[in-house]
Amino acid sequence: xxxxxxxxxxxxxxxxxxxxxxxxxxxxxxxxxxxxxxxxxxxxxxxxxxxxxxxxxxxxxxxxxxxxxxxxxxxxxxxxxxxxxxxxxxxxxxxxxxxxxxxxxxxxxxxxxxxxxxxxxxxxxxxxxxxxxxxxxxxxxxxxxxxxxxxxxxxxxxxxxxxxxxxxxxxxxxxxxxxxxxxxxxxxxxxxxxxxxxxxxxxxxxxxxxxxxxxxxxxxxxxxxxxxxxxxxxxxxxxxxxxxxxxxxxxxxxxxxxxxxxxxxxxxxxxxxxxxxxxxxxxxxxxxxxxxxxxxxxxxxxxxxxxxxxxxxxxxxxxxxxxxxx
Length: 326
Prior knowledge:
Layout: H1 3-12, E1 24-29, E2 32-37, H2 48-67, E3 72-75, E4 83-87, H3 98-102, H4 117-126, E5 134-138, H5 140-159, H6 161-169, E6 171-172, E7 180-181, H7 189-197, H8 204-223, E8 227-233, H9 238-257, E9 261-264, H10 267-271, H11 278-289, E10 299-307
Parallel strand pairs: 6-7
Antiparallel strand pairs: 1-2, 2-4, 3-4, 5-8, 8-10, 9-10
């Protein structure tokens, strides 16, 4: 593999992904690179979250390519890929982008400080709108409205066995270099005990109590934020999710460049692809109602809280590049 392609893909593998599953597969053929889903790492029910993660990886690769003066041209996707591109020779070899190197999921409680209007405008201007993905930025007033909804969503996930098992399967209680390390969740002693308890066959009363503990945490996480950014799409094909991921990565880079902590809040968007029932339907309707100015024909595909906080205690590890290349 040419050095510039290796650098480009090394940037791609550092992208964020749902539960740090890193569900991408890179195929190199000369000056052509194909980006597809690694189905063995894809745990999302309909593949939406995997495609968003792949989009973030593609955006990291494109930013790295631009820094090296590489011209990338999109080609018809090869078999098994969502995106295929050919790459020109680089004009220079550069060090990694500092914002990408600093980017991390920060699950701490933030300090609740409000952002000034100028900073919010700068964040909006820093993220280009894409054909299939649009950003919407909100301050503290929307955070307060979302807090109770995040609490209900987290409780619901923890009370439904299939959703609870899927959520807990992503947490690594044993290792630190793969998946979602337990320490990265920044839990209190009581919250950690509740989460560990939910892995065991316990009575309905204890399950409800533990679910309430985790729901309360989700509310406090949201209500401690300075604001939220959502990414919407009107597209229904897989490339809409890829565009959402590319835009979400740009959002995260903009926040990092401003010194802001950030965390995707994926529980609500995960409920949107779960088996529907009356509770889920009502909660999703309330969630949409929290964004009355967002076009009704769009889908809220990604939500990020952001604010001010100390650095995270633990950063999730990444697979070596060779484990993501075919």
